[in-house]
Amino acid sequence: MLLKIKDRFIKQIPITAKVTLWYTFFIGILLAAILTSLFFISDIILTNVSQQELITSVNKIAIRPSKFESYDDGIFFLKYDARGRKLGGITPAGFFDNARFSPNKVNIQQKRHNKFFYYDMKLRGEHGNWVRGVFPVTKIANIFKYILFILSVMSPFLLFLIIYGGYKIIKNGFKPVEKISSTAMKIKENRDFSKRIDIGYGKDEIHKMAKSFNSMLDTLENSYLHEKQFSSDVSHELRTPISVIMAESSYGVEHVETVEEARESFAVIHRQSKRMTELLTQIMELTKLEEKERVPKEKFNISEMIEDIESDFVKLSQEKNILLTSDIESNVFIYGNQLLLERVIYNLLTNAFKFTKDKIKISLKSYSHLNCCIIEVEDNGIGIPKSEQSKIWDRFYQVEQSRNKNKNQGYGLGLSIVSTILKLHNGKIELQSIPNQQTIFKIILPIENM
């Protein structure tokens, strides 16, 4: 139970506080270890350094007696003759200078609280005179201990400054994380998938994480927009057939008296139900295509594909008294999805037949040019007004003239599907149309795999 409460408490602590506590703990231990080590090894360090400095200084004077000084850099120098009589120099307070000559060895003199190192050497060229260097260890040790004491007293304040400065640095470093969290919460509350995380430019891990979040949000937004578009399309387009079905059903229940009248009502209901099924199939197909970023492709002979499609429309052209001509270059190979590209040609030819009057010509051309495959579907029917040409690729858009809904019942999705499939193939489609004269849909597909 206590462990669960502890875990719950720890999980509630902000990550900035956790990181600050952890590094404070380690810095505190490190600082304590350093101070403790200094206290224990200070005497060793002081002894080694001061003795080496004492030997070096005395050697310099012994070699060059003319450089003799009574005091230099914390060391006192005394000059004696061969009998031990003092010839010059300053004796430090507390030091008894009646010590015997003891050359080439660091000696220690300690009286009560005073401790000294001294070192003797004969002076070169002075017939038995010698020099003694005296280093007052106690004074320097006291200074050193005072410094350690000051450090010990100041260490809590130093630790506080380190903690405070570190906390500020960590908090500032985690600001992008707070921004990421805040943006995610806003998206959740408002369901606004258009928001993005803006933390500026950077190449560290947090900026990489923000970039990954933005990529994920792009995917979510696209999925959300497709879902929203699908719901809007379905509700918009199904409203009319459902209303017709409900009206016809109500009429059948209330007014139909004969089998013939019932058959007529059933025919209307069947026709509208079929329309709903076809409409839903096309909407779902378009939605799936729009969600894809790429489709499987393979190399195939598009010339043979177009020739096969042409043969499928020969009988229909004869029934509608339409002249269908073709000019297809042989053996043009491209990389693409054959099933989807068949759908493109079928849609364009179906439109051409649907919106063309009797005794009208439809032409199908295919050829290669500048590493591209060009496919043209041309008819000399009613055409498309200039003002409508940019809109025909939109969902459910239909031209409001005889290329229209009255005679040719369509859903306005065919050209949207064509445009989407071509985008997946890095291709494009161009339209040239003169009302009541000519319409040409020109498809441009790259031959190489891209």
Q: Can you put this structure into words, describing what you see?
A:
The protein contains nine helices and 13 strands. It is an alpha+beta fold and 450 residues long. The chain has three domains: 157 residues, Beta-Lactamase (2-Layer Sandwich); 87 residues, Orthogonal Bundle (Helix Hairpins), CATH 1.10.287; 149 residues, Histidine kinase-like ATPase, C-terminal domain (Heat Shock Protein 90). The strands form three sheets. Strands 1, 2, 3, 4, 5 and 6 form a six-stranded antiparallel β-sheet that branches. Strands 8-10-11-13-12 form a five-stranded mixed β-sheet, covered by helices on one side. Strands 7-9 form a two-stranded antiparallel ribbon. Helix 2 runs antiparallel to helix 3 and helix 7 packs parallel to helix 8. The two termini are 62 Å apart. About 2% of the residues have low confidence. It catalyses: ATP + protein L-histidine = ADP + protein N-phospho-L-histidine. It comes from Fusobacterium hominis. Pfam families: HAMP, HATPase_c, HisKA.
List the helices and strands and how they pair.
Blueprint: H1 2-12, H2 15-63, E1 71-72, E2 75-80, E3 86-89, E4 106-111, E5 114-122, E6 130-136, H3 137-173, H4 175-190, H5 205-255, H6 259-291, E7 298-301, H7 302-319, E8 323-328, E9 333-336, H8 338-354, E10 361-369, E11 372-379, H9 414-424, E12 428-434, E13 438-446
Parallel strand pairs: 8-10
Antiparallel strand pairs: 1-2, 2-3, 2-6, 4-5, 5-6, 7-9, 10-11, 11-13, 12-13
Given as residue ranges, the uncertain stretches (5+ residues, pLDDT < 50) are 401-408
List the secondary-structure elements in sequence, H or E.
HHEEEEEEHHHHEHEEHEEHEE
The total count of strands amounts to 13
By CATH reckoning, the class of the largest domain would read Alpha Beta
Counting structural domains, the number is 3
Architecture per CATH nomenclature, i.e. the level-2 architecture of the largest domain: 2-Layer Sandwich
Count of alpha/pi helices: 9
Strand content: 15-25%
Sheet bearing the most strands, described? 6 strands, antiparallel
Mean pLDDT: 78
* Coarse morphology: elongated
Bin the helical content.
Answer: 40-55%
Task: Say what the CATH topology of the largest domain is.
Answer: Beta-Lactamase
State the secondary-structure class: alpha+beta
**N-to-C terminal Cα separation, in Å?**
62 Å
Give Rg in angstroms.
49 Å
